[in-house]
Each structure stands twice: as C-alpha cells, then as structure tokens.
Amino acid sequence: MGLATRAAADASITFLWVFSMASLGAVSSALAPIIGLQGGSGKLYVVLALVTLLIFVFSALGKALGGASWNPTSLVAFAYAGVSKDTLFSLGIRMPAQMIGAVAGALAILEVMPKKYSHTLGGPKLKVPLSIGLLAEAVLTFALTLTVLWAILRGPRSPSVKTGIIVVATIILVMAGGAYTGPAMNPANAFAWAFVSNEHTSWQHFAVYWIGPMVGTVVSVWAFNLLFAPQRPVQKGNAAAAAVNGESDRKAEVVKDGSVKRRAKRATQEESAKEE
Questions:
Q1: Is 182 exposed, middle or buried (0-12, 13-18, 19+ CB in 10 A)?
Q2: In angstroms, rounded to a whole number, what is the distance separating the alpha carbons of residues 112 and 109?
Q3: Residue 72, preceding peptide bond in cis (omega within 30° of 0)
Q4: Kind and range of the H or E element at 248?
Q5: CA nearest neighbour of 98 among 71, 76, 116, 78
Q6: Residue 30 CA: distances (Å) to CA of 16, 23, 109
Q7: Contact, 25 vs 120, CB < 8 A?
Q8: Which of 77, 96, 102, 171 could connect to 188 by a Cys-Cys bridge, CB 3.0–4.6 Å?
Q9: Is 101 exposed, middle or buried (0-12, 13-18, 19+ CB in 10 A)?
Q10: What are the transmembrane regions (predicted)?
Q11: What is the pLDDT of residues 102-140, one digit of tens each?
C-alpha cells in the first residue's frame, strides 16, 4: 500500500472516529430512555457500551484498511518502537491527513446534528492550569500507549482479548482524566475541535494536546523497551553457535577415538599373523 493510499485511509478513519465519538452524547440521550435507563448514570452506561462497540469496530476497520490509524500518538509509538515502517517523512504525511480527517468529521457532525442535541457537541476542555493539564495529558497518554504496545506486541494472542484490554484501559483513563483535560489522548481529535472554535493556533492547545501526548508517547516506548524488550538475537545466535560448535567438537573426538581404536586393532591382528 502506497503512502498516499495510507494517508487517505488515515484521513477517512479519523473522519469517522471524530464523527462517531461526537455523536455519543446525542445517541445516549435518545437511547437511554428507550431502554429504561434514566438519569445521568443511565446515560453513562449507554456511552460506555457504545465506546466499547466503537473501539472494536474501528480496530477491525483499521486492520481492513491496511493499518489505518485515527490517533497520531499510535503512529509515533509504533514508528519509534521500530514496529512499523513509518519514517519521519511518512509521519509528516499521515499525521496531517489525520488532522484533516478529524476537522472534516467535526464540521460534518456540526452540520447534521439536530439542534436539540447540539449542546452535546464539543471537544476536550482544559479545566486546570496549563502545566497540570500538560502533565495530565502526558501521564494519561503514557498509560494508554504503554497498554496498547503491551496488548498488541506482548499480550494475549486473541485479537478480541487484545482489543478488550485496550477498551478497559481507555474507559478507565477517560474517566480519570475527565476533571483535568477532557481528556483527549488524541491530538487529531483535540485539534479538530480547537479548529472549530478557532483555538487551534493557541499555545494552550499546542502545549496540552500536542506536547503532552507526544512526550507521554515517547516515554511509554522507552518504558516498554525497558520492561518488555525481548532477548537480543545476537546472544541467542552466539549461544546456538557455541552449542553447535561444542557438538561438532564432541563428534570429532568420537570419530578420532574410533579411528585410533581401529588402527590399534589392525596392528594387533598383523602382529598375531606374523607370529603364526
């Protein structure tokens, strides 16, 4: 798959992700009374169920699109970990594509959302001082990215279980970070809503929703390599070579010993023949 195709896939899936996530408030408000769940807690249960469904659906969709991603931190994490084939150049194409897709998704949902549910739309909001918000996004993204790396690269073999682990981590971290930054843990999504409100060029947005998550991503890769790095192939190769060489030496000794015994036996037979 070419870079242009991958970028188009990233833009498409990010468009759908932002559009779908932004609609959760309206869908849960409409759906909760229908299924008999009243109040804020009932709406929360519906949102959690829908988030779980969306992550499973988008994980499958991303795989079907050849590894398309809706979060810039995922691209950076897998590239920095050496898992993907992305380079700085390809990241420079794919990440802007995600941003374009995210903005398109936000603008689209604003156009089609009924007015009575328009109050449910919006992106992450900073609710604490900037320095605390930056730290919060860094820590939350660190935890999420480390979980994703472990689940995908070292976790259970079942794709469903891998996704389930990511779902649980996402829900826990979203609930934990709600009082701080929203949270975002996704610079493209945060950029889309900042663009809509004309705040995308502010230092606050850049520091909290870009620097914070990217720092958390880089540190999570360091931590992953420190905690879960495999044994070095060179060491395994040396051990295997030593074992092979040792076995060869033993075989040589056996062959040599056998040759000596055969020569001694022939000499004994010749001596006996001469005496006769």
A1: buried
A2: 5
A3: no
A4: helix 233-275
A5: 71
A6: 20, 11, 16
A7: yes
A8: 102
A9: buried
A10: 15-37, 44-62, 91-110, 130-153, 165-186, 206-228
A11: 999 999 999 999 998 888 898 999 999 999 999 999 999
